[in-house]
């Protein structure tokens, strides 16, 4: 067994029991302190389901990842599935109507050019073992800020509907009036990524850095890869937030009246 393998968590009954305890603890804390937005949301149940789904999905990925990283068709299919799931997840979090699929725009707007630039410059080879984790990190980051920015913007527009109407009465276009309300709150979605980049190495050692060290890379190489991931993530997330706010300001992405109320 290599040093990197010995450094990882052992896959045994003890790990399974500990994961179960942590999952129950998370759900229990949320239930006890009523950390749900309203009575219709069952966050403890969502946490348990999320944990079970994560286990099932990671087990499935572990079975198919070998095929995906060694076969070009498998690589393409894997990336399409990742993107599709991200779009569906973001869309479901923002609205229940037909406009949910438009979340594909903010997620793709930053991820596609970044991945394309990596491939065209030769910095990343067309190999699943490299392309899948990098694409996954970028898609996941775009998904997170799309949801955060979209929810904040839609909530704020509903809460301050009168201000939008007042701005329009003063001569603002509908898009501009909505943008003035949505843009400031949506920008908060960038804060987690910004804080992570500011404190990297001081507060946290992110996954890409640790993973490369465990894989035998030098600290310098691991640091360079992590630096790229963090800066690329900030670019992808900035684009995702900008596109999300634009779609909402132009009423392309919206909630049904009953849902917004």
Automatic annotation (TrEMBL):
Membrane topology (UniProt): Multi-pass membrane protein
Keywords for this protein: Membrane, Transmembrane, Transmembrane helix
Intracellular or extracellular location(s): Membrane
TM spans (from-to): 12-33, 64-87, 99-124, 130-150, 200-221, 227-249
Primary site of residence: membrane
Keyword presence, Ion transport: no
PANTHER family: PROTEIN ALUMINUM SENSITIVE 3 (PTHR30028:SF0), UPF0014 INNER MEMBRANE PROTEIN YBBM-RELATED (PTHR30028)
Family note: Belongs to the UPF0014 family.
Name used for this protein in its record: ABC transporter permease
Annotated organism of origin: Streptomyces javensis
């Amino acid at each position: 067994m290599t040093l990197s393998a010995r450094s990882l968590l052992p896959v045994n009954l003890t790990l399974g029991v500990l994961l179960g305890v942590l999952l129950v603890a998370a759900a229990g804390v949320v239930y006890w302190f009523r950390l749900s937005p309203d009575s219709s949301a069952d966050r403890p149940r969502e946490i348990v389901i999320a944990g079970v789904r994560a286990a099932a999905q990671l087990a499935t990925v572990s079975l198919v990842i070998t095929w995906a990283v060694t076969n070009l068709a498998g690589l393409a299919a894997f990336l399409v599935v990742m993107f599709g799931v991200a779009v569906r997840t973001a869309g479901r979090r923002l609205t229940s109507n037909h406009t949910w699929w438009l979340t594909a725009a903010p997620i793709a707007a930053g991820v596609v050019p970044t991945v394309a630039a990596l491939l065209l410059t030769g910095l990343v080879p067309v190999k699943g073992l490299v392309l899948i984790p990098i694409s996954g990190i970028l898609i996941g980051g775009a998904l997170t800020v799309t949801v955060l920015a979209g929810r904040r913007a839609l909530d704020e527009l509903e809460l301050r509907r009168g201000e939008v109407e007042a701005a329009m009465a003063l001569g603002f276009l509908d898009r501009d009036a909505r943008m003035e309300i949505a843009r400031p709150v949506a920008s908060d979605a960038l804060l987690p990524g910004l804080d992570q980049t500011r404190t990297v190495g001081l507060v946290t050692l992110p996954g890409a850095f640790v993973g490369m060290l465990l894989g035998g890379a030098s600290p310098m190489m691991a640091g360079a890869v992590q630096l790229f991931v963090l800066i690329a993530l900030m670019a992808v997330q900035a684009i995702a937030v900008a596109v999300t706010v634009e779609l909402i300001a132009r009423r392309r992405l919206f909630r049904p009246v009953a849902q917004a109320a």
